[in-house]
Design goal:
- By secondary structure, the chain is α/β, with parallel strands linked by helices.
- It folds into 2 domains: about 1-250 and about 465-480, Rossmann fold (3-Layer(aba) Sandwich); about 270-460, Rossmann fold (3-Layer(aba) Sandwich).
- It has helices at about 20-30, 45-50, 90, 110-125, 145-150, 175-180, 200-210, 215-220, 225-230, 235-240, 270-285, 310-320, 335-345, 360-370, 385-390, 400-405, 415-420, 430-445, 450-460, 465-480; strands at about 1-5, 35-40, 55-60, 70-75, 80-85, 135-140, 160-165, 170-175, 195, 200, 210-215, 245, 295-305, 325-335, 350-355, 370-375, 395-400, 425.
- The strands form 3 sheets. Strands 3-4-5-2-1-6-7-11-12 form a 9-stranded mixed beta sheet, sandwiched between helices.
- Strand 1 (about 1-5), helix 1 (about 20-30) and strand 2 (about 35-40) form a beta-alpha-beta unit.
- The longest helix is centred in the first third of the chain and has 16 residues, at about 110-125.
- Bound molecules: adenosine-5'-diphosphate (ADP) and alpha-D-glucopyranose.
- Adenosine-5'-diphosphate (ADP) binds near residues 17, 19, 21 and 363.
- Adenosine-5'-diphosphate binds near residues 300, 331, 359, 360 and 385.
Length: about 475
C-alpha cells in the first residue's frame, strides 16, 4: 500500500508533544510491515537547519505567488522518506511551530497550515516527484484538517483518514480567513467547515475524511459526549460508524531502560537496586535529600489545564509538609502553573524539585529514577508517559480517562489477585481524589511484594508500535 502520512511535527525533527512521538514512529512501523510510506512535514527552520535536504520539485498551489518547494530526506535513524513543504515566508522562522517567541499563536497560522494542507492535497493527487500517488492519505490534527476537505470532491483522490490526537485544539479562525484562504464557498456550512460562525480546520477532517479515528478506544467514546466533545459531539455521533480508537504505541528502542543512554545506569526494570541507583542520581540532579524513606513521584508534561498541574500541587502539598514523599516535575506551559510549582519547590527544597523547560534527557532520567508517575489529566486522548512509566517499572498514578483508562489497571484486591493491576487510578478530577490515590501509593510503598507485583505486570505489557500499526493497516484496507 502507498501511504502518505501528514503531520505538523515528528520526532526527532521537531516536537512539542505526543503527536511528534506518534508521527516519528507510526509511519516507520507501517513501512516495517512492508508498505510504501512517505511522511510530509512543513520545512520549519528547526528541521532544515544543519541537515541535508534535497530539492526534488515544486508544487503549484493556488493563491501562492511563488511556487512552493518540495525537499526530500530521511527521518533520522530510519530509512523512511520525508518530504518537507518549503515555503520560507511561513515556515522559515525560529521557535515553536505554532507560537511566536512571545508565547502567542503566530498571527498567520491559518495561512501557514492552510498552505500546508493544500500542499498535502497536491501530493495526494500525484503532484510530487515521479508521479507517486498514495492510495491512503493519513492526516493528523487540525493543522492538516483542510486536506480531506479540499480533496473530498476530487475524482481521482486517495482514501482519507483523519486522526484526532486532541480535540481541544481545533484550529478556529475568524470568518475572514475563509476568503484569505480562497476556499470554495460550498465548504462553508454547518455540516462543513463552519463552526458557530468561525472557520474550523479540524472540521475539515471530521466532516470530510473517509475514516476518523483517535488514539485510544476510551477517548473515541468520550468525544461523543458534551463533556469531551467541545460542541463537535453531534458531528462525531453522526459519523460514529466511521469513528474508532486505536491505542498509540511507544518507541521501544528510544524508551528502553536496559539500553537508555540518557540515564545514569541502564537497568532491568525488575532489578530494584539498579532502579534505586537511578533514583539516587535523580535526587542528586535536583538536590533532594538522598536519605528520604518515602516514594519519589515524577511528572513530565505540558503545564496546562488538561494535565492537572494544579491538582498535583494541591494534592502533594500536605504530603510534602509532613515529609512522607518527594517529587520532581519537569514541564513548561502556562505561567500560573510554572509559578505555583516553583513556589512550592522553594518551600520544600529537599523534597520537591521543579525544572521549567523542555529536556529530553531529563525526561528519561525521571522515568528511570521516579518510583511512581503522576498523570491526573482532566482528559487524555492517549498519553505516552504512563506507558513509558510502565516499561520503566515506575508505577503510574492516573485519572481514569481516555488512554490512561485503557492502559492503567488500578490496584484492588481483585485486580491484584488476577495479576492485572499495574498502577493506581481514580475518577474525579479533584485534588481530594488524587490525594486519596497518593495515600494509597504511600501505603503500598510499605508492602514491597505488592509493589513488585505491580511493576512486573506493567513491564509485561506490549506497547510496541507493531500492534497499533497492524490495526491501522486493517483500517486502511477496509477503505480500498
Ligand atoms: P501531549 O501530547 O498531550 O503533550 P503525551 O503524553 O502524548 O502528551 O506526550 C508528551 C510527550 O512530550 C512525551 O514524550 C513527554 O515525555 C514529552 N514531554 C512533555 N513535556 C516535556 C518536557 N518538558 N521535557 C521533555 N519532554 C517532555
Ligand atoms: C495529544 C494528546 C495525547 C496523545 C498525543 C499523541 O497531544 O494530548 O494524549 O498521547 O496527542 O497521540
Amino acid at each position: 500500500m502507498r501511504i502518505l502520512f501528514a503531520s505538523s511535527e515528528a520526532h526527532p525533527l521537531i516536537k512539542t508533544g505526543g503527536l511528534a512521538d506518534v508521527s516519528g514512529s507510526l509511519p516507520v512501523a507501517l513501512a516495517a510491515l512492508g508498505h510504501d510510506v512517505r511522511l510530509v512535514l512543513p520545512a520549519y527552520a528547526a528541521v532544515t537547519r544543519g541537515r541535508h535536504w534535497r530539492k526534488v520539485g515544486e508544487l503549484d498551489i493556488p493563491g501562492q505567488r511563488q511556487p512552493v518547494g518540495l525537499l526530500q530526506g530521511k527521518l533520522p535513524g530510519t530509512p523512511l522518506p520525508v518530504w518537507l513543504v518549503d515555503a520560507p515566508l511561513y515556515f522559515d522562522r525560529t521557535g515553536d511551530p505554532y507560537r511566536a517567541p512571545d508565547g502567542h499563536d503566530w498571527q498567520d497560522n491559518h495561512l501557514r497550515f492552510g498552505l500546508f494542507s493544500r500542499a498535502i492535497a497536491a501530493l495526494a493527487q500525484g503532484d510530487g516527484p515521479n508521479d507517486w500517488r498514495p492510495e491512503i492519505l493519513h492526516c493528523n490534527d487540525w493543522q492538516t484538517g483542510l486536506a480531506p476537505a479540499l480533496l473530498a470532491e476530487q475524482p481521482d483522490r486517495p482514501a482519507t483518514v483523519f486522526t484526532i490526537h486532541n480535540l481541544a485544539y481545533q484550529g478556529l479562525f475568524p470568518l475572514t480567513a475563509l476568503a484569505e484562504l480562497n476556499l470554495a464557498g460550498k465548504l462553508w456550512n454547518p455540516e462543513g467547515l463552519e463552526f458557530y460562525g468561525q472557520l474550523s480546520f479540524i472540521k475539515g477532517g471530521l466532516a470530510y475524511a473517509d475514516r476518523i479515528n483517535t488514539v485510544s478506544p476510551s477517548y473515541a467514546r468520550e468525544i461523543r459526549t458534551p463533556q469531551f466533545g467541545y460542541g463537535l459531539e453531534g458531528l462525531l455521533n453522526h459519523r460514529s460508524h466511521i469513528l474508532s480508537g486505536i491505542l498509540n504505541g511507544i518507541d521501544t528502542d528510544v524508551w528502553n531502560p536496559r539500553t537508555d543512554a540518557h540515564i545514569s545506569q541502564p537497568y532491568d526494570p525488575l532489578d530494584r537496586p539498579a532502579k534505586g541507583h537511578n533514583r539516587a542520581a535523580l535526587r542528586a540532579e535536583f538536590g533532594l535529600d538522598d536519605t528520604h524513606p518515602g516514594p519519589l513521584f515524577g511528572h513530565i508534561g505540558r503545564l496546562v489545564e488538561q494535565k492537572g498541574a494544579d491538582l498535583i500541587v494541591a494534592a502533594l502539598e500536605p504530603l510534602l509538609t509532613d515529609g512522607r514523599v518527594q517529587a520532581v516535575v519537569l514541564g513548561s506551559g502556562e505561567k500560573r502553573f510554572e509559578q505555583t510549582l516553583e513556589r512550592l519547590a522553594a518551600r520544600f527544597p529537599q523534597r520537591l524539585g521543579v525544572r521549567i523547560g523542555y529536556d529530553e534527557g531529563l525526561a528519561h532520567q525521571i522515568e528511570a529514577g521516579a518510583d511512581a508517575f503522576l498523570m491526573p489529566s482532566r482528559f487524555e486522548p492517549c498519553g505516552l508517559n504512563q506507558m513509558y512509566s510502565l516499561r520503566y517499572g515506575t508505577l503510574p498514578v492516573v485519572r481514569r480517562t481516555g488512554g490512561l483508562a485503557d492502559t492503567v489497571v488500578d490496584a484492588t484486591s481483585e485486580t491484584l489477585a488476577a495479576g492485572t493491576a499495574n498502577g493506581f487510578a481514580f475518577d474525579a478530577a479533584s485534588a481530594m481524589e488524587l490525594g486519596v490515590a497518593l495515600e494509597r501509593v504511600v501505603d503500598t510503598w510499605t508492602h514491597p511484594q505488592i509493589w513488585n507485583a505491580l511493576m512486573a505486570a506493567g513491564i509485561a505489557q506490549d506497547f510496541s508500535w507493531e500492534r497499533s500499526a497492524k490495526q491501522y493497516i486493517a483500517m486502511y484496507e477496509s477503505l480500498l
